[in-house]
Amino acid sequence: MKFVISKTCILLLSFFAIECASVPKEVVELSYKTGEDIAALYKSYDKLIQEYYEKMRQERIAYIEDVWYPKFLKSWMRKGELGAIAKGEKIWSVTEGKLIANPGNANSEESFQTLNDWITYALYAREVKEDSLLQSLNHEEKMLRENVDMAFQQVIRANSTITSHLNSLRKVQEIEDDAFKVLSINNLRNNITSTLSNASARANKEFDKIREQDKDIKDLTSQIEAYTKTK
Amino acid sequence: MTNRKPGRMATPGNETFEETNQNLADDEFQLLLNTSIDWEQLRPKINDAVLYDELIRIVNDATRRNENLSQLKEKINSLGQQGVILTKQIMTLIR
C-alpha cells in the first residue's frame, strides 16, 4: 500500500514538474518539418554536385572529341599506315612486330586482320584517354557525395532524435492532462496561486493593522510623556 | 577502367598515343585547370560524429524515460475505479 502511494506521489510530482515546461504541438511539428526540409536540402545539394561534375565531365569529353582524338587519329593514320593497310599493301607481322609489305594476295585474310588491328587500337586509345581524364573526376565526385551524404545523415539523425524527444514530452503532457481531468484538479495550479495570493493579501491587511496599532501606541506614549512633563 | 585490349598493333599505337599527349600538353593542362575543383572545400564541416553519437545516446535515454512514464498511464487505468478513488484521497491529503 505504502509502495503504491509513494509511486503515485512520484508520478504526480513528475506531472507538476513537466507542466512547468510545456511543449506545444507546433514545436514537434516544426522539428518534424525541419527534418523533412533537411532531407530536401540534401537531395538538392547532391543533385547540384552531380550536375557540376557532369558539366566538368562533358567539358573534358568535348576536349577529347574535338581536339585530342582528331589529332590522335591523324597521327595514327600516318604512323599506322592506314592507307597502305587499306590498299592491302602492308600487313602486320607477328614475328617481326611491325608492318611489312604484303607478300601475297592484297585481299587476303591477313590484310583484313591488320585493318582490324588498326581499328582496335584506335578504339582502345579513345577509351584509355577518356578514362585518364574522367577517372579522377569520378573519384572526387564519389568522395564528395559520400561526405555530404554522411554529414546530412548525421544531421537528419540528430533532428529525428530531437523530434522524438519533443514528441515524448508531448505524450507525457497529454497523460498529465488526462490525469488532471480524472482527479478534477485541472485548476489546481491556479487554485494554489490564488490561495497564495489571498494569503499574501491577508498578511498585508494584518500588517496594516499592526502598523495602526503601533501608531496608537506611539501616540499614547507621546501623550504620557507630555503629561509627565507637565507634572 | 577500359576492358578493351590494345591488340597486336599496341607498340606503334602507344607511341602515337604518347606523341599526341605531348603535342597537346599545354591544352590539356589548361583543360584540367578549368575543370578541376578542390572537393575538400565543398565538404560540409560539421561537428564530429562521435560527439553527435554521444549526444544522441543521451537524448534517446531521456526519450525512453518519457516513454516509460507515458506507459504508466495504462497501468493507472488498469487500477480501475479503486485506483481513481485512492489517487483522489492522496490528492486530498496533499492539499
Biggest sheet strand line-up of chain A? 1-2
**Helical percent range of chain B?**
over 70%
The helix count of chain A comes to: 5
Terminal-residue CA separation of chain B: 81 Å
Structural class of chain B: mainly alpha
Shape of chain A: rod-shaped
Note the beta-strand portion of chain A: under 5%
* Domains of chain A, number: 2
Q: What does the largest sheet of chain B look like? A: none
- Bin the strand percentage of chain B: under 5%
Calculate the mean pLDDT score of chain B and round it: 86
Cα gyration radius of chain A (Å): 47 Å
> How many distinct folded domains of chain B?
1
- Give the % helix of chain A: over 70%
How many DSSP-defined strands of chain A?
Answer: 2
User: What does the oligomeric state look like here?
Assistant: heterodimer
Characterization of the model:
The complex is a heterodimer of chains A (231) and B (95). Chain A is mainly α. Chain A has 2 domains: 2-186; 187-231. Helices cover 85% and strands 3% of the residues of chain A. Chain A has 5 helices and 2 strands, in the order H-H-H-E-E-H-H. In chain A, a hairpin with a 4-residue loop joins strand 1 and strand 2 (98-101). Chain B has 95 residues and is an all-alpha fold. The longest helix of chain B has 46 residues, at 49-94. The mean pLDDT of chain B is 86. At the A-B interface, helix 1, helix 2 and helix 4 of A face helix 1, helix 2 and helix 4 of B.
